[in-house]
Amino acid sequence: LAFERLDKDVAKRLENTFAWHSYAHSRSKVATGLATTEEVDALPPVCWRMVWRNPVNGRGALYLASHAYGVEGMDADAGKALIEQLTEAATALGVTYLHQWKQGDV
């Protein structure tokens, strides 16, 4: 898991860090105005912990994706930079699995 590959000090800091997530933010990365006003109103930004622990094995996992746009307690640029850094680490070549779909897989 990406969380387990992080520097120990970074991982420890993230344990008590929260990120802001927004459906509208993720849709705006695809196309401006993609999220309708109704969707934006129905799905307001929410703040979630950046590390979730598996209740069975205790392993930590990063919780971030295209909907994460800011980090609680950090200025906007620093939060964005941290999210980008973590996303790059989690999706780097050699640490992800890319399935080559073929007929009959599903």
From TrEMBL:
<dbReference type="Pfam" id="PF02668">
    <property type="entry name" value="TauD"/>
</dbReference>
<protein>
    <submittedName>
        <fullName>Uncharacterized protein tfdA-like</fullName>
    </submittedName>
</protein>
<feature type="domain" description="TauD/TfdA-like">
    <location>
        <begin position="2"/>
        <end position="106"/>
    </location>
</feature>
<dbReference type="InterPro" id="IPR042098">
    <property type="entry name" value="TauD-like_sf"/>
</dbReference>
<dbReference type="InterPro" id="IPR051178">
    <property type="entry name" value="TfdA_dioxygenase"/>
</dbReference>
<keyword id="KW-0479">Metal-binding</keyword>
<dbReference type="GO" id="GO:0046872">
    <property type="term" value="F:metal ion binding"/>
</dbReference>
<keyword id="KW-0223">Dioxygenase</keyword>
<keyword id="KW-0560">Oxidoreductase</keyword>
<dbReference type="InterPro" id="IPR003819">
    <property type="entry name" value="TauD/TfdA-like"/>
</dbReference>
<dbReference type="GO" id="GO:0016706">
    <property type="term" value="F:2-oxoglutarate-dependent dioxygenase activity"/>
</dbReference>
<comment type="similarity">
    <text>Belongs to the TfdA dioxygenase family.</text>
</comment>
<keyword id="KW-0408">Iron</keyword>
